[in-house]
Amino acid sequence: MPFFVGDLNEFYVNIGRVGADDGRDFYQFSRPVEGLLNISVQPLSAPVSVEILDNFGNVLSAFNASEENGG
Fold it and tell me: Cβ distance 36 to 44 under 8 Å?
């Protein structure tokens, strides 16, 4: 089950942890209007993969973040 964030109209911060026993976190949100979306994942102790999906589960964007490329 994803964590439901709701409509992203403003600045949003979530502090959480992904560990060996919890290797994946899912967040569900909607964007009422088209616009820029910035995602930051830090600090990183291991590489992180991020995928942005549409309502049907299709990947719209994907990237890998690590300490080397600034998270």
Answer: no
